[in-house]
Amino acid sequence: MSAVVKLHDIHKSFGAIEVLKGVSFEIDRGEVVAIIGRSGSGKSTALRCINRLETIQSGTLEVCGHRLDQPTLDLRALRQDVGMVFQSYNLFPHLTVEQNITLAPRRVKRLPNSQARALAQESLERVGLAEKIDCYPEQLSGGQQQRVAIARSLAMQPKVMLFDEVTSALDPQLTGEVLRVMETLAQGGMTMAVVTHEMTFARRVADRVIFMHQGRVWETGPGEMLENPQTPELQAFLSNGL
Amino acid sequence: MKYTFDFASLQEYWPEFLRGALMTLEMTAIATVLGMVIGVLCAIGRRGKRPWLAALCGAYVEVVRNTPYLIQIFFIFFGLASAGLKLPIFAAAILTMVFNVGAYTAEIVRAGMDTIHPGQIEAAEALGLSVPQIYWDVILRPALERVYPSLTGQFVLMMLSSSVTSQISAEELTGVANSVQSESFRSFETFIVVAVLYFLMAMLLKFAFFLVGQAMFPRRRRLGTPL
Q1: For residue range B28-61, what is the model confidence (pLDDT) as tens digits?
Q2: Is residue A2 very low, low, confident or very high in pLDDT (cuts 50, 70, 90)?
Q3: Which of A113, B2, B89, B151 has the highest count of CB atoms within 10 angstroms of its CB?
Q4: Which CATH number is associated with domain A3-240?
């Protein structure tokens, strides 16, 4: 198994505040990694560095063969290989579900308009929302919007998908429907990095869990590590959740 | 007050009025399109990363919005003439209108762009869209939908204030009215007729903008809700 995401000794500051203090981890092809930790632990920032929504100050960062620490980086090629789903869905409100999904394929990959609808249909079927193809985002529930956002990302056929607290804005029932879609993706062999507060999901679906604390990777291991935390910080983090 | 209205004596001037009204509409149509282009480019320039361009666009907007339109007209018309550039009056009038409305449009469009949530732009970036594509598909279209009522109001206002270009002898509706009243000596009637014509043109313009809006904003047409 070769690693498709490699972070080594990543440092990142916002002004005077250093949020990543030498973060290193790798994600193998087809692997599902859950990144957990308190707010402010740097987990979202680390995720956002992977597709260059944040730039790093130092360290080496390679994603799908793209060197993000090099000035020669082809940003658009990187973004085509890495999909991202956000906490606040970020669907485009003025476009229908179909247009949301096909915008990037049409603009970036020059998909002919005649094939756009079929692509939207196919992507929506993967998230179980084919009947919503002509709706506008505001006509959908939060869970449905998030599933459309996943479909939008899938339509670009990314090699890696990043999930940034995608269920944090949803009630438990809607959270369930989104997590089920993600689980299906994981079983289908998608490489995924998932920043989440859903410990059950992390334990059940993730191949590996990374616990971040104060800008560092504090503890890492398979899902079972959540039942048997080694560090007092992870122990405290997990017991606060109960 | 004893005044006998005599609209009948204006009858022979109908072709004149019509010609003036058409010219006003023509000037308005051209200035709306060009003003929109200038306004959008200027709004983008002001939001952009180049400080000199942002400053330039900002200065243009502030100068135009804080000086009288009539002075701008004289400045452009006589200024260009002394610089040796003699424009036809029609072109000069349109130039002043575009110069003026472009700045107001820029501010309205910029306000609309500022309502676009940063998350929208991040999502578009993450999908691999380029900066021009993001501006066009993700920022400009919803921004225009949000500020469309203010924009149309501004363009109707521009149509009305185009009457000021009669000061550089543009033969638009007010210019025509000035000649008609000095020939017919029926000033009151002339300006009543002109006021009614302006009112009707404003209604026509609003209706045209409504139709354009229906075509441009399908979401609005279908759901009827504000964005």
Answers
A1: 999 999 999 999 999 999 999 999 999 999 999 9
A2: confident
A3: B151
A4: 3.40.50.300
User: Cβ of A92 under 8 Å from any chain B Cβ?
Assistant: yes
Task: List chain B domain ranges.
Answer: 13-223
Q: Does residue B18 carry a pLDDT above 60?
A: yes
**Chain B contact set for A55 (CB, 8 A):** none
pLDDT digits (tens, 9 = 90+) for A14-61: 999 999 999 999 999 999 999 999 999 999 999 999 999 999 999 999
Domain coordinates of chain A in residue numbers? 3-240
What backbone phi and psi angles, to 5 degrees, belong to B77?
-65, -55
Q: Do A93 and B128 touch (CB under 8 A)?
A: no
- Mean pLDDT over A106-120 rounds to 94
Tokens of A100: 């949301």
Query: In angstroms, what separates the C-alpha of B1 from chain A's closest C-alpha?
Result: 58
Q: Tell me the CA distances in angstroms from B154 to A191, B104, B138, one per residue in order.
A: 51, 7, 24
Give the pairing of strands A17-28 and A32-36.
unpaired
Instruction: Tell the residue number behind the tokens 């998030």, with chain if given.
Output: A146
Per residue, the 3-state secondary structure of A102-120, as one string, reads: HHHHHHHCCCCHHHHHHHH
| CA distance linking residue B60 with residue A173, whole number of Å | 53
Fold of B13-223: MetI-like fold (1.10.3720)
